[in-house]
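Hi Y.,

Following your request, here is the sequence exactly as I used it, all 80 residues.
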Amino acid sequence: MNDPEMSQLRWRCRRGMKELDMLLLGYVDKHYSDVGQVGQRTFRQLLSMPDPDILALLTGKATTEDEHLADVIKRLLTRD
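Below is the corresponding structure, written out as tokens. Let me know if you'd prefer a different format.
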């Protein structure tokens, strides 16, 4: 991914809630380049979701049957 695309992606990770920003930006920094096209597309789809829906997935108040989205959520919550 070229610099303008990565800059745009990082901008989309800024949600106005510090904790959520940190998780999303951490995913971009640690995992995004390694997850392949499907994982990258799924992460971009996650960024299209409303913040309350993202938070519900991250806090376990909501679940998903989508295995790719579940993998992104798992990676977001992994502290490595």
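The mean pLDDT is 92.

Thanks again,
Q.
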